[in-house]
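Data availability (excerpt). The following record was deposited with the supplementary files.
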Amino acid sequence: MAQNFLDEPYVVTTILNRVFNDQSPSYTVYNNQLAWVAANGVQAFALSFGAALAGMTEDALSTKLLGNLGVLPNAGLQTALRDYLEVVGKDNVGIVALQLGKILSGLEHATGDQAVFNAAAVAWNKELVDSYHYSSNPANTGYTGGEPEMPVTGVTIVLTSGDDAVSPAAAEAKFKSTANNDTFLARTAGLLSTADVIDGAAGVDTMIATLAAGSTVAPQLRNIEKIFITAGSGAAFDARSASGLQELRIDAAEGPATFSGVQLDAVVGIQNSLAGGALTVNFTGASGPADSAHIVLADATGHDEIIVANIEFLTVRSTAGTVAATTANQAKISAAQAQGIVILGDQALTTTVTGTQVAGVDATALTKALGLTLAGTNGVVVSLNAQAAHKINLGAGADTVKIMGLAGAEAKDINLSTSATLAASAIEVAGFASGIDSIQLDAAKGTAKAVPGTTDLASIAASASLLDATALAATTAGANKAIAFRFGADTYILVNDATAALGANDSLVKLTGVMALANASWTSA
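Predicted structure:
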């Protein structure tokens, strides 16, 4: 029997991105997701999507999923889904989300009681098609939605120190905006003011502005999609009167800065911030139990921090900016109310996540190395793919680390040149408490736990080097097996591929400072 269209991997990934995050991934992230589905299967992919939401209540999950599907308000449906999640368990929310997306897709011509979903189904199917077109286009490097932008250069308008009024109908030619992609410049502090009224008209328009230290600016802006701000220390940009805004970034800061009145559908972030500074973002309308927001870090290489309040579900994209030498973003993420955080992108990220409510961090769509420290958290599920030498520092409580795609061509190759290069290419988990925390390993082809004897483990521990110990562990475990062993002051878990001998496609996980690992504290599949 031919595979149903809605079961195709490219449809499944599109549905889950829209139902969970109301977003369309970039071309690179989308293809990484497709590769992961091909290696692990649709069900595992769907379950991984829901892992970061483990801390949400069934009621909040119902609201989030149905809202992104576009079928709310509907109190009866919301209650029914909540009750269903209580029956099947929140661990299966990824499967439920996929089912909902497929069901709604087939209701365009429903009759009887289900006819009320006709319009929502039409809109949903268009959303899926538009999302697929976006994510399958190599030109699209951002994580957003809709069709790709077609750049048509418009005019460049330089603001003045007066009260500027810019629009297509402006009396002076120098203040006329166009239907193309216009640029508005206010590079000197004071040129952009609260008294300015600017309409960018059609096109994808960009504003580049500098704010003086300690100033607060709240201009009236319409149809300006992208705003990049260089901020003096203590500067604030009030976006309450900025309609049509899609992207708002700090482009270098001399100290702390604030964005306020930002709509939830705008992407907010830090770009090229070599000097560092804390950016506080206050979203407008963030008052519900399941508010989602999106932030981006692009060459944030100073001592940056982004502080987000009243957001339950946060998506963080790590990507490149315009500083060519930069290879990784470094920024703290403080989100006091966040329950789930999704980290994705194509740039390495070193971050400390602070938030007492955080229950899950899903970094499975981040294709480069993650250096993650959990601070102020208590019992978090961290999910990631074995695509880089990640370093995770766990917080308090019973944390769970899920590592997928281990052992195989899809995994990050380990470097077998020396013991030092092997150690550097391992996935490192610090702060792991045996008997409290747990680590769940999911190999690309499925891997069972080896059961080495006491003598075997003693021989491995007595090896002359880490490379020798790991090689002996590989042959002791055998093909398609995972083995936990101690070497020095640490415990390692080797996930072996289909070849018994140690090879570059095997995966190595290091539990720093763990002298003994309880068998119940780790699983392999």
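Summary of structural features: The mean pLDDT is 87.
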